[in-house]
């Protein structure tokens, strides 16, 4: 039972276009679930931290007298976990995985980091000490035993990151065939954390129809934006995309000659850019990294944002 931060959006932001929204320090002691319910009722949600600027604003919002801990909107989940590569921009593809028989098993919800041995991958407790490989885009370094978090920090401080992606692993096995026979940490891990606000950036390049199917299969739907608060959350996620635009759940229908959200809402609030959106029959709505909506042919392959 601790104090907590709320994201305070309504009436607290400047005009759309790169604005910063306020964090509000709540001086009530509550459990995480109680704090989440309070924030959703009275503000927007528990605080989400997207970058170092957000972190500094979060710290600035505390009182000088208070030095203890406070809840934010990050939670550990036990279902719908996904595997990710540590290195930014490297996407995990299950069809290219090289799991050992019976893996991944996440035994006891404790094995969320991955080691490679004899070309196969095994989940292991992240606190296990093991050799590891760092990579900087050109060269690789084989290093002595550390835990997975220690290895990741070492690689990021001294090189680029832990070795990530099947192409890098193939290069490693070619250059260091003997080392590939002993267990080594690689940059693969099971992501068990999510933010309370439910916007989820998927860094996979898909067409609009593929993105819609993916969101409905794995989460709830492609994201809808019906007010300024939701716009602010989504554009913060869009800044972290690996493509210039991200798909939204926004579609044009020639039959009815209108734009609509796939979740069923009408397009009342909007943030279209100049000369947008137009009425081409094969277009869908996307957002650039600054939060502006644009129309795109639906066969473009972009990152996208799902809602839970």
Automatic annotation (TrEMBL):
Record CDD domains: CLECT (cd00037)
SUPFAM superfamilies with a match to the protein in the record: C-type lectin-like
Protein's recorded name: C-type lectin domain-containing protein
Keywords assigned: Signal
Record has Signal as a keyword: yes
Species of the source: Sander lucioperca (Pike-perch)
Family annotation (PROSITE patterns): C_TYPE_LECTIN_2 (PS50041)
Keyword Signal: yes
C-type lectin domain sequence ranges: 23-135, 134-198, 188-307
InterPro entries: C-type_lectin-like, C-type_lectin-like/link_sf, CTDL_fold
Residue stretches in coiled coil: none
Signal peptide: 1-15
């Amino acid at each position: 039972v601790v104090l907590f931060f709320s994201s305070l959006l309504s009436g607290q932001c400047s005009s759309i276009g790169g604005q910063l929204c306020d964090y509000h320090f709540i001086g009530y002691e509550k459990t995480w679930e109680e704090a989440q319910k309070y924030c959703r009722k009275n503000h927007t949600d528990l605080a989400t931290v997207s970058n170092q600027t957000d972190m500094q604003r979060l710290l600035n919002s505390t009182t000088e007298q208070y030095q203890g801990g406070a809840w934010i909107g990050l939670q550990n989940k036990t279902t719908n976990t996904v595997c990710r590569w540590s290195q930014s921009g490297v996407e995990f593809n299950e069809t290219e995985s090289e799991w050992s028989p019976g893996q991944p098993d996440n035994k006891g919800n404790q094995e969320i980091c991955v080691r490679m041995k004899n070309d196969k991958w095994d989940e292991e407790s992240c606190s296990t000490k093991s050799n590891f490989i760092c990579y900087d885009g050109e060269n690789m370094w084989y290093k002595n035993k550390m835990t997975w978090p220690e290895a990741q920090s070492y690689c990021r401080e001294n090189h680029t990151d832990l070795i990530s992606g099947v192409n890098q692993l193939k290069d490693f096995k070619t250059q260091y065939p003997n080392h590939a026979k002993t267990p080594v940490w690689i940059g693969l891990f099971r992501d068990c954390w999510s933010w309370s606000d439910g916007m989820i950036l998927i860094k996979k390049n898909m067409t609009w129809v593929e993105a819609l199917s993916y969101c409905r299969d794995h989460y709830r739907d492609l994201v809808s934006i019906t007010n300024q608060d939701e716009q602010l959350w989504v554009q913060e996620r869009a800044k972290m995309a690996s493509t210039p635009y991200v798909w939204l759940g926004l579609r044009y229908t020639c039959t009815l000659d209108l734009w609509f959200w796939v979740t069923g809402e009408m397009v009342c609030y909007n943030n279209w850019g100049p000369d947008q959106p137009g009425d081409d029959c094969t277009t869908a709505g996307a957002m650039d990294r600054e939060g502006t909506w644009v129309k795109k042919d639906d066969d473009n392959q972009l990152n996208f944002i799902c809602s839970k």
